[in-house]
Target: Redox-sensitive bicupin YhaK (Pirin superfamily)
Amino acid sequence: MLQVRKSQERGYADHGWLRSFHSFSFAGYYDPAYMGFGNLRVINEDRVAAGAGFGTHGHRDMEIISYVLSGELAHKDSMGNIESIPPGDVQRMSAGRGVMHSEFNHKADQTTHFLQIWIEPKERGIAPGYEQKQFSDAEKRGTLRLVASPDGRDGSVTVNADARLFAGLFDGSETASLALDPQRKSYVHLVRGELEVNGQKLVGGDAAMLEGESQLTLGAGKDAEVLVFDLRA
Model:
């Protein structure tokens, strides 16, 4: 079964300094039909205005992934990490038993556009942790590059979750396929462009939710950037 959710069906919030689309119920947006998918709990597509950001706040028992699309995101946390996250980097923060952090756009003339992703942890109460790695466009071109996994396979960041995350760039005749376990769930989020997912056309912001499927096939891309999640059912 494949279910498509269109971009415009997502929740939306405009706070002035922050414009955010919510794929699942979050903050002031609540839809009982979209509380998450498998152990994927949050995908927020955020645009942070120049000179603005999220002040210091806390998290616990959640795997948080930041995927920057344009601009840069400045990160500072209670573990002592002070990092800048540019496009192409994947940042993983394991909140564990508690962490405080802030995220800021220090650019005076540029919006930061990024995806904030939350995945429920495999183990609760662990020590908080941080990891950040760069994945070049060449690594993602015409393929699904593993960027996050439970065991850090193939140079991916390591998540404390029963989940894998792939990223890919597709245009023209480029295609890719991925074998799926029908007992698990898969979630495809099209970041930008156009792409066919098992024959279904998606445009930027759309998502496809797959259950009971054994194969994922991507093709007919037009300047497409996509994230694919392999998730606990």
User: Anything to note?
Assistant: The mean pLDDT is 97.
